[in-house]
Amino acid sequence: MTDSTGRPALPPMKITRVVAAPLFGESPKGGWSAEIRPEDSIHALIAVHTDSGLVGHGSVFTDGRLVEAALDVLKPLYEGENALEPERVSEKLHQNTFWMGRGGTLTHAISGIDIALWDILGKATGLSVGRLLGGAHRARVRPYCSLLMEEPDEMERVIEPYRAQGFTAFKIGWGPFGRRDDYKLDEAIIRAARKAVGPRAKLMVDPGASDAYWPQGLKWAIRTAKMLADYEVGWFEEALKPDAIDDFRQLREVSPVPIAGGEVLTRRQSFIPWLVKGALDIVQPDVTKVGGISEQRRIAWMAQDFGVKYIGHGWNTALGLAADLQLSSAFPDCDLVEYIGGSPYVDGILATPFSLDAEGFLAIPDKPGLGVELDRDKVARYTPDAGALFA
Ligand SMILES: [Mg+2]
Hints:
The chain is α/β, with parallel strands linked by helices. It folds into 2 domains: about 15-125 and about 380-390, Enolase-like, domain 1, CATH 3.30.390; about 130-370, TIM Barrel (Alpha-Beta Barrel), CATH 3.20.20. It has 13 helices and 12 strands. The chain has helices at about 65-80, 85-95, 105-125, 130, 155-165, 185-195, 220-230, 245-255, 270-275, 295-305, 320-330, 345, 375-380; strands spanning about 15-25, 45-50, 55-60, 140-150, 170-175, 200-205, 235, 260, 280-285, 310, 335-340, 360-365. The strands form 3 sheets. Strands 4, 5, 6, 11 and 12 form a 5-stranded mixed sheet that branches. A 4-stranded parallel sheet has the order 7-8-9-10, covered by helices on one side. The longest helix is centred in the N-terminal third of the chain and has 21 residues, at about 105-125. It is globular. The model has no long low-confidence stretch (mean pLDDT about 95). It binds magnesium ion (MG). The site of magnesium ion (MG) has 5 residues, from loops.
């Protein structure tokens, strides 16, 4: 097989197996009402192996036991497929599992497979995923450091180490904010955080209303949004329960700060009503849950056409962040990526860890595929069979 210039075309690369490596032991605190325990796995790495010996890596934000079960169910659909066709193969997995939990575990697991397939396509063609997505709008992007909220007098202690590392944008979330029915406490947390990050840093706020039994409603969110504007907050995220779409629309209408959300939505189709109703200023799909890069790309373009900004939520591991970096290069207004502060699954699994430049930006790797390399020994600290991820 040759192309029009006589060069040999790439022959198909068959998927031989897909494996998951659940990560345990050092999951950072989630701020959830049922807090994550060391023995809980809420993130898993994925490896797609091919008959060429090339391996692609991906990541899933879900309990490793669910991911392993999903891989078993999906096996007859991916085995022997051409790993060089991420969008077609992922869509085949979605279309053929319509009846078995679409949007849930299967969609999450397909996300990891899809990310790994894009990694393989990039490695096989010598192009970064960002270039494969249509071209690179930027070579670096500003990460915002996500940290949990604490009592006001603790916010400086929480923020300072990351400010010292060079972060120039922050998001604080969860913790006591909105959960004590105390506006004065909420404002004191924000005041302390603004003081700690300094007047010029970006500061975003995420009460985390997708947590179990979130106690507040629309009136709290409207009043709080007005308070946040006084502290130059960049966006107000998950301010309402995740299905309260009409309340989100009303909040967006009156809020002086941009309204963000969408991290718990999966499948591109779920985003349509949110965009059509005008419920969000900023949409935050999670590439490790929503269906992978193929799905996230479509959501991000759809958002563009609705005048809604796209910022990814793929912070679950270094591979989720690597996928978000590549996606950010492919979208003109995606000027931030989420970077969870203090997670060994982000900072401690790559051969060359991420590092900020002097202005607090992350370089987007212009290397084949995701452009990052897992370190086998480092990964082995967090999962029993790290070797299965490698050729
Ligand atoms: Mg959030």
